[in-house]
Amino acid sequence: MHNAREDDSWKSFLGHLGGIEIGFERVGFKTAWFIENEPYAQAILRKQFPNTHIYGDITKVDFGKVPRVDILTGGFPCQDISTAGRRAGIEGSRSSLWKHYLRAIGTIRPKVAFIENVSALLGRGLDTVLCDLAAVGFDAEWHCVPASAVGAPHQRDRIFIVAYPN
Questions:
Q1: Residue 47 burial by CB count (10 A; 0-12/13-18/19+): exposed, middle or buried?
Q2: Is 78 labeled as catalytic in the residue annotation?
Q3: I want to staple 106 with a disulfide (CB 3.0 to 4.6 A). Which of 21, 32, 136, 142 is the partner?
Q4: Cα(132)–Cα(79) distance, rounded to whole angstroms?
Q5: Is 32 exposed, middle or buried (CB count within 10 Å of its CB: 0-12, 13-18, 19+)?
Q6: Burial 125-164 (b: 16+ CB within 10 A, else e)
């Protein structure tokens, strides 16, 4: 992997509020673009990253036309996966947006794809994510991390998946 501190060709993808990218930027990486469809979330991203392009609806993005990326970061809606939600799983109306993140990975072919979601994905879709990644030629490793491990006052586990071409 190249040293992004010397080369700012690092790009990003995100369906959240930029926390992952803030962390990467603090160690020298540069965020190039986001994908976010919600106006309020877009406003937060514009405040944190005023010079970064935001694409809207992921279902309409032509990933063959976006700037090339080395690292893709982000998540997909967890409402259908979370124990607090309806538990429809990864095929639910919101969480099924995973297929569009996968389309981005398959088209862009980054050196690394960093994927984040709720830990309930372990039983409600991780098998699908791993099979889908394998189908586009990516291997993956994953780990659950409690929020308290990074200073939050609660335990909520998040799953982090790092995928790379096999």
A1: exposed
A2: yes
A3: 136
A4: 20
A5: buried
A6: bbebbbebbeebebebebeeeeeeeeeeeeeeebbbbebe
pTM (2 decimals)? 0.86
> What is the tens place of the pLDDT at every residue in 40-79?
999 999 999 999 999 999 999 999 999 998 999 999 999 9
The residue from 32, 66, 78, 108 that is catalytic is 78
135, pLDDT greater than 90: yes
- Six token digits for residue 14: 């995100």
pLDDT at 85: 72
DSSP string, 12-54: ---SSSSHHHHHHHHTT----EEE---HHHHHHHHHHSTTSEE
Question: What span, in angstroms and rounded, lies between the C-alpha atoms of 164 and 141?
Answer: 9
Residue 118 pairs in a beta bridge with: 158
Could you tell me the CA-to-CA distances from 2 to 71, 102, 106 in Å, in that order?
A: 11, 23, 21
CA distances (Å), origin 17, targets 6, 73, 127, 146, 164: 26, 12, 26, 19, 24
CB 35 within 8 A of CB 13: yes
